[in-house]
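Justification of resources, computational component.

The compute hours requested in this renewal are based largely on the per-chain cost of generating structure records like the one below. Each record pairs the submitted sequence with a full structure-token output. That output is archived, and it is also reused by downstream analysis tasks.
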Amino acid sequence: MKELHREVPATKGWGAGLARVPEGSDVDLDLRLESVVEGVLVSGTVRARVDAECARCLEPVSWDEFADIQELFVYPPQDARGHRVDVEADDEEDAPPVIEDDLIDLEATVRDAVVLRLPIAPLCRDDCPGLCVECGALLALDPGHRHEVHDPRWAALEALLDEGPKDQQDAVRDQETARDQETVRDKAHDDDKDD
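The structure output for this chain reads:
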């Protein structure tokens, strides 16, 4: 068994959704390599710096992402004398990676481990209020921010409210006057019948 620590640059294409590992940023590897019958078992942890945008407010956010890796790298097929034998490539997706010329290529294993841990919709904080849907204002800076929403179905009633108290008093007075006039008419009509 051999333990090693390496710091390597991230290659292009380490990202998912709004989060990604910047190309060329340092990726720390703490690995343990164990010789097994089939090949070399590589296990350990990976740390990579992640830059992202909050999915709600679009503010930049960054953090260190840690991922565990474990992958078996198999020896290439050999004949009875120990000579390498070329075998047709398997079409299996889950075929283990092969050790080539006594070298192990960890790039795909490390990239997959980190990218699979990245959130699709990262948040700057769990209770991020996001942006105003009307004007795009950052709600974290102005928690009381709001817009008056007018429902067109209530427009006629809102017009009555907009007339104000004076107009409402006039309307009540007009109703009372109309009632009084009807009463006077009805009384006059009744007096005419009596004559």
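The two ends are 126 Å apart (CA to CA). Helices lie at 107-115, 155-162, 164-194.
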